[in-house]
UniProtKB/TrEMBL annotation:
Homology family: Belongs to the zinc-containing alcohol dehydrogenase family.
Molecular functions per Gene Ontology: alcohol dehydrogenase (NAD+) activity; oxidoreductase activity; zinc ion binding
Organism expressing this protein natively: Saccharolobus solfataricus (strain ATCC 35092 / DSM 1617 / JCM 11322 / P2)
CDD domains: Zn_ADH5 (cd08259)
PROSITE patterns with a match to the protein in the record: ADH_ZINC, QOR_ZETA_CRYSTAL
DNA damage as UniProt keyword: no
Protein name: Alcohol dehydrogenase (Zn containing) (Adh-8)
Listed PANTHER family: ALCOHOL DEHYDROGENASE 1-RELATED, VACUOLAR PROTEIN SORTING-ASSOCIATED PROTEIN 11
Length: 336
């Protein structure tokens, strides 16, 4: 089968023919229906994940159809449509038992310690799979584990209440455009912040208010008291995000577009304004199940900016790097 391979640390990527995977006892082989490109993929190619195994099949966002299961797999059968968590926890530690497997110290991550999903087929641990409801499309499913469910858990962790105002930076991007919809599904009023007029048009289809430009805090404060910021950009917008917040507000830090750039945090400002700055890593299985239901109810609609075949993976990367024009998710499809 064809796959996008990272041969070694900082050695770029190759589209290569590799042997078809075979399932172990607790594993399944899925035909990849669609995979989705994520900023993490780009950071991995650039070498920001040095502890990955190599060679590695890239890609961690997937929806597929089960082709074959190992002898111990009871919950899935051939033909089931599934998506996967981003990692495989041990399901036995205290974190896992309390439903916070995202903190499992023994977890192994797809496209880091395990091969990922930019391939025709993928080998997955059955315990990381979640069935996709019949009425949810492949596009609607592939945006859930790394994007919509991740935001869902972040907003729950921040204690979101109905009627609160949530501000989303990087609002037209793959995370932002879905974050707006998740926040609205949970009862918030949403301000989308974006960088250009063409992107603002897309954001306005989903957000209650749109602000264009780098200096957005004054305008945000005129709209009302912002309780939560979903920060998808990083050091470039964090200052304005903090200024936008009401006292006691929270920042859910999700994006960090350039990990080599640092941010000078003014502690006095954080203290006097009683701001919580929350890092946020991702979703538990239960968040994925709940968020798939929000997609099923039509409360979250997938926004797909483009779809590129696996052979044209380079084009997908070009689109991801085109910050002026890109919006929504970029999908990688199988044309074989
Ligand atoms: Zn991702
Ligand atoms: Zn665990």
């Amino acid at each position: 089968m064809k796959a996008v391979i990272l041969p070694a640390h900082k050695q770029g990527y190759r589209i290569e023919e590799v042997p078809d995977p075979k399932p172990g006892k607790d594993e399944a082989i899925i035909k990849v229906n669609k995979a989705a490109l994520c900023y993490r993929d780009l950071l991995q190619i650039k070498g920001f994940y040095p502890r990955s195994k190599y060679p590695l099949i890239l890609g961690h966002e997937v929806v597929g159809t089960v082709e074959e299961v190992g002898e111990d797999v009871k919950d899935f059968k051939k033909g089931d449509r599934v998506t996967s968590m981003l990692f495989v926890p041990d399901w036995s530690c205290e974190y896992c038992k309390s439903g916070e497997e995202v903190y499992c110290k023994n977890r192994v991550v797809y496209a880091q310690e395990l091969d990922g999903f930019f391939a025709e087929k993928a080998k997955v641990k059955a315990s990381s799979l979640v069935k996709v409801p019949e009425s949810v499309s492949d596009e609607g499913a592939v945006i859930v584990p790394c994007v919509a469910a991740m935001v869902y858990r972040g907003l729950k962790k921040a204690g979101i209440k109905k009627g609160e105002i949530v501000l989303v930076t990087g609002a037209s991007g793959g995370v932002g455009i879905h974050a707006i919809q998740v926040a609205k599904a949970l009862g918030a009023k949403v301000i989308g912040v974006t960088s250009g007029e063409s992107k603002a048009k897309i954001v306005s289809k989903y957000a209650d208010y749109v602000i264009v430009g780098e200096k957005f805090s004054e305008e945000a404060k005129k709209i009302g008291d912002v309780s939560i910021v979903i920060e998808n950009v990083g050091p470039y917008t964090l200052e304005e995000s903090m200024k936008s917040l009401r006292s006691g507000g929270k920042i859910i830090q999700i994006g960090n577009l350039d990990p080599s750039v640092t941010f000078n945090l003014r502690l006095g400002y954080i203290i006097l304004k009683d701001i919580s700055l929350m890092g946020h890593i991702g979703a538990n299985k239960n968040d994925i199940i709940k968020t798939l239901n929000l997609v099923k109810e039509g409360k979250i609609k997938p926004v797909i900016g483009s779809e590129v075949s696996l052979e044209n993976f380079g084009k997908a990367l070009d689109l991801l790097n085109d910050s002026k024009n890109r919006y929504g998710k970029i999908l990688i499809s199988n044309s074989f």
